[in-house]
Amino acid sequence: MPNEQMVNYGQARSVIRELFEYGNQRAKIVGRDKVYDFSLGNPSVAPPPEVDRELRRLLDTSDPCALHGYTSAPGDPEARAKIAASISRRFGMDCEAGQLYLTVGAAAGLCCCLRGLCNPGDEVVVFAPFFPEYGVFIQSVGAVMKVTPPEIEGFQIDFAALERLITPKTKLLIVNSPNNPSGAVYSEETLKKLAALLEEKSHEYGHPIYLISDEPYREIAFAGVEVPYIPKLYRNTLVVYSWSKSLSLPGERIGYVYVPGQVEDSETVYAAVAGAGRALGYVCAPSLIQRVAAACCDLTADLSVYERNAELLTRELRAMGYHVVAPGGTFYLFPRTLIPDDVAFSEAAKALDLLIVPGSGFYCPGHVRISYCVPTERIERALPAFRKLAERYR
Ligand code: PLP
Question: What pLDDT does 71 receive?
Fold first, then answer.
């Protein structure tokens, strides 16, 4: 008998994927332009031209054996040096190449941190709503997931609830700002309060409580919204980043874990992250794209369509009577459903060929996620369906 937990992960249905597949089937029947698919978080803008240019340059000018060969396990030293310089310059850190561990995207970065830091039975605190894969990543290392209930007025942090969840067994917390699915960005005030609480609890329990800042959406922040750099506010922060969204390269699988020197026992923590990568069999991140990401790490794709889409959807949905917390970034909107049952609400939307994801999958019922990483005209075409849905519950 195979490992039962893995069988369950392999067989569990993904509501998001099912909606996406349903959309493809419906498109064959009613036509692509009559299906309003907002299910997946797949970037809809092309990578910046520099990405392809760098790919071509590397292919034309490098020794192919070196280019396509294994790099050192944490990543090519030159690529890491470039990325470290960029982090130091942009965020005022003293980042060194030896503190970066390149990974196959943020997902692998999270798994390396969890596997590297947690012993079985340790507790990991997350904040609803959150990326559902956290549950898989946390449970598969034998840790226990503790969910902080959502603060639905602004999607910041319910500190009273959080304080009750932190125990001597708390090993780490995962924060994700800008957030999938709420689009919220934690303010500096929220993060300072969080840092103060974690300092106090670390002191009380006599061991560091780590913070993992999962930030694949860092660069997708809208006008006037500041995304604080969390290591500047809390010493024991590890950063998990990827270029999946900022450079529109999700299929290329490239990101990093950054263990700043200020982290308590940073060299041991770094070794644990690298050891976890080894134990998971990652070997090294894809070699060609490591170099491309390093050459382009100060760039982004043209992300402006996401902000336009956010404004359009927020304005129009509010006018129809939906309650929407305006997102500070990402490409997700997370309005309240017009009935308490978000699954039934999503089903009613589906009957109008409007594909939106129930919030309960993100541990936040009573909401739906709309992924607006789509052409603006799809949103314009979908507005009558959103209106019809609102009228149904009026
Ligand atoms: N973390 C969050 C919050 C995400 O939304 C995603 C992907 O959508 C990931 C991590 C994984 O990103 P990657 O594609 O870089 O593995």
Answer: 97
